[in-house]
């Protein structure tokens, strides 16, 4: 089984300690959600897992191979990434934009063939983008653009997928849509690591929650074990009422903790 | 448009324009005489006009236009901006300055590699400064401003060199570098630049796919498996080699690298990788046409190609800048 491991990771930038002694193991078939207040180091952890942010201590390993020993294309065939910022410098067609997900396989977005074309086709279908495939990306709505980003990541057919706030600017229906796609990716054997702020959505879809505060992972476990009023107070400094069900989870913030 | 069809149409167009450029000139020539000279069976005088004067000049215009078109397309891909171009970014000016410095010190004699080398070094210095700046400057406006600064600085040093020119001959020589022209170019001039063009072309072709991935920004491209460092180095090197080589043939000619990719982009689905080849063909064609214009416009002193290119290109730059502002915010 594929494993993405981070051990003792520390990140310092301009004398600020952004990540301290982060330890976690991410496995295939899981949807792990990283939660925590702004500035807790969630994005830093994610980009450390991708090798995008250099560590001053510790290591990230993919199935026992240190991440830095992998060539960029090798790494990209194992870990897909959906960054927070999703902007296109040029108004490409949806299909070409999704086709960029096959970069690490040597494909050109303009001339997809064979396995690359098939993977793009599957990703477009999974994300319900087939009717939009010839549209230019700059004519899409926010929800459609989020699906394009997911489709591009799925097209890479990687065992792992890292997503940074993929539902941040979406309405409830599109949030549900994207989370369902990520959940399905995990159910089909992928390991998803997602940073997000919506705790109700996180609790409903996540296999496990990683709680971060001040650059540290302070708790790591299933929502039913770790999502408690006490933890909300410790991590977010708010009083919250929590109800967890099979269909939906509900986290209501009542006010700042006393 | 399908790539093959696009290339066929573009190549046919370039061929026709090339023939027209061979036919048109100050020495009038009937069609029969032209075709006889073309197949190598004309009178000696016609043959010389066609093959020793017009052909190398037209070839020089094509090569210069093509390398500027390709450099522009590659730089635009790297910097993710439709306004990036060797002329606008000051790369051409710095390259011309490099060549002029070599001329000033008399280092560049005819048929020596010194001038092309100095031009490439000038282009490289400017492109490296720009790329370093691009990593720190968040906004592209800053980058363009740095380009303006580089251009002005190169212009100032050039003015200094002109001011201190030891004799009228080197003054005229340096002037022609700044104005840009392909008049009286020989096959030898093109051959000297050829190795630089070839290596530059290979550099750019080898990172074309990465430039497509950079459409999504650096973090995304990294995630897709792009080697950012390698892409930056090879694009900068390739664009500098090609710009430097083209400056060594024709001096500084602006805006071709801006206009050609801009016109091609909608035909290739706005994909940076697929923009490069057609932009080169179009750039070459545009410069041949501009050079025909230079030859046909009746002025007492022949109009300089770089001057005409700037007269047409600068308004185009403003237009593209205004449109891209509307589009990309």
Helix content of chain A: 25-40%
Distance between the termini of chain A: 45 Å
Largest sheet of chain A: 6 strands, mixed
- Oligomeric state as shown: heterodimer
Describe the protein's topology.
The complex is a heterodimer of chains A (258) and B (329).
Chain A: E1 3-13, E2 16-27, E3 31-35, H1 42-50, E4 57-62, E5 65-66, H2 72-76, E6 79-82, H3 94-99, H4 114-126, H5 142-155, E7 160-164, H6 172-187, E8 191-195, H7 199-205, E9 208-213, E10 216-221, H8 223-226, H9 229-236, E11 238-244, E12 249-256
Parallel strand pairs in A: 3-8, 3-9, 6-7, 7-8
Antiparallel strand pairs in A: 1-2, 1-4, 4-5, 9-10, 11-12
Helix pairs in contact in A: 4-5, 5-6
Chain B: H1 3-23, H2 31-38, H3 44-79, H4 91-104, H5 114-136, H6 140-163, H7 168-179, H8 187-213, H9 218-224, H10 228-250, H11 256-264, H12 272-296, H13 305-328
Helix pairs in contact in B: 1-3, 1-12, 2-3, 3-8, 3-10, 3-11, 3-12, 4-5, 4-6, 4-7, 4-10, 5-6, 5-10, 8-10, 8-12, 11-12, 11-13
Describe the structure.
The complex is a heterodimer of chains A (258) and B (329). In chain A, helix 4 packs antiparallel against helix 5 (142-155) and helix 5 (142-155) runs parallel beside helix 6 (172-187). The model of chain A has no long low-confidence stretch (mean pLDDT 93). The longest helix of chain A is centred in the last third of the chain and has 16 residues, at 172-187. Chain A contains nine helices and twelve strands. In chain A, strands 6-7-8-3-9-10 form a six-stranded mixed sheet, with helices on both faces. A four-stranded antiparallel sheet of chain A has the order 2-1-4-5, with helices on one face. In chain A, strands 11-12 form a two-stranded antiparallel ribbon. Chain A is of the alpha/beta class. Chain B is mainly α and 329 residues long. Helix content of chain B is 77%, strand content 0%. Chain B contains 13 helices and no strands. Chain B is globular, with a radius of gyration of 20 Å. The chains are: A alpha/beta (258), B mainly alpha (329). Chain A binds chain B through residues 47, 50, 52, 72-77, 79-83, 85-93, 96-97, 100-101, 103-104, 106, 108-111, 136, 138, 156, 162, and chain B through 3, 80-81, 209-210, 212-217, 219-220, 222-227, 265, 268-274, 327-328.
């Amino acid at each position: 089984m594929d494993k993405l491991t981070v051990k003792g990771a520390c990140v310092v930038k301009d004398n600020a300690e952004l990540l301290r002694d982060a330890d976690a193991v991410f496995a295939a078939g899981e949807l792990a959600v990283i939660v925590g207040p702004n500035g807790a180091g969630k994005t830093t952890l994610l980009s450390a897992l991708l090798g995008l942010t250099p560590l001053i201590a510790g290591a990230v390993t993919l199935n026992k191979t240190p991440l830095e020993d992998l060539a960029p294309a090798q790494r990209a065939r194992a870990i897909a990434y959906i960054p927070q910022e999703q902007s296109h410098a040029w108004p490409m067609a949806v299909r070409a934009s999704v086709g960029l997900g096959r970069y690490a396989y040597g494909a050109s977005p303009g001339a997809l063939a064979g396995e690359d074309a098939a993977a793009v086709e599957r990703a477009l279908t999974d994300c319900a983008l087939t009717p939009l495939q010839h549209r230019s990306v700059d004519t899409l709505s926010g929800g459609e653009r989020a699906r394009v980003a997911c489709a591009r990541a799925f097209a890479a057919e990687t065992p792992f997928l890292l997503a940074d706030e993929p539902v941040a600017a979406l309405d409830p229906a599109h949030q549900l849509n994207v989370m369902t796609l990520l959940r399905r990716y995990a159910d089909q054997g992928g390991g998803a690591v997602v940073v997000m702020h919506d705790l109700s959505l996180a609790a409903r879809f996540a296999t496990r929650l990683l709680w971060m505060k001040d650059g540290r992972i302070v708790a790591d476990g299933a929502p039913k074990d770790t999502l408690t009023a006490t933890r909300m107070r410790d991590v977010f400094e708010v009083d919250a009422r929590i109800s967890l069900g099979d269909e939906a989870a509900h986290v209501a913030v009542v006010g700042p903790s006393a | 448009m399908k790539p093959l069809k696009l290339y066929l149409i573009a190549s046919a167009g370039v061929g026709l324009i090339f023939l027209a450029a061979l036919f048109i000139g100050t020495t009038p020539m009937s069609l029969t005489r032209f075709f006889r000279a073309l197949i190598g069976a004309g009178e000696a005088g016609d043959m010389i006009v066609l093959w020793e004067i017009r052909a190398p000049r037209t070839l020089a215009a094509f090569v210069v236009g093509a390398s500027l078109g390709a450099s522009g397309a590659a730089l635009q891909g790297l910097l993710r901006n439709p306004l990036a171009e060797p002329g606008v970014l000051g790369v051409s000016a710095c390259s011309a300055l490099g060549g002029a410095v070599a001329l000033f010190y008399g280092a560049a004699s005819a048929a020596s590699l010194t001038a092309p080398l100095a031009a490439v070094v000038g282009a490289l210095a400017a492109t490296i400064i720009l790329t370093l700046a691009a990593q720190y400057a968040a906004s592209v406006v800053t980058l363009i401003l740095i380009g303006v600064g580089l251009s002005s600085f190169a212009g100032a040093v050039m003015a200094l060199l002109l001011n201190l020119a030891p004799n009228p001959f080197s003054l005229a020589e340096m002037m022609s570098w700044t104005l840009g022209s392909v008049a009286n170019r020989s096959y030898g001039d093109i051959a000297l630049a050829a190795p630089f063009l070839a290596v530059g072309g290979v550099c750019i072709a080898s990172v074309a796919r990465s430039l497509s991935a950079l459409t999504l920004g650096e973090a995304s491209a990294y995630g897709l498996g792009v080697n950012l460092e390698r892409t930056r180095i090879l694009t900068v090197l390739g664009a500098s080699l090609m710009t430097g080589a083209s400056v060594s043939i024709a001096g500084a000619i602006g805006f071709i690298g801006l206009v050609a990719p801009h016109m091609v982009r909608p035909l290739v689905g706005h994909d940076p990788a697929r923009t490069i080849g057609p932009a080169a063909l179009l750039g070459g064609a545009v410069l041949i046409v501009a050079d025909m214009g230079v030859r046909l416009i009746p002025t007492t002193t022949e109009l300089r190609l770089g001057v005409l290119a700037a007269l047409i290109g600068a308004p185009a730059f403003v237009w593209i800048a205004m449109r891209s502002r509307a589009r990309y915010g």
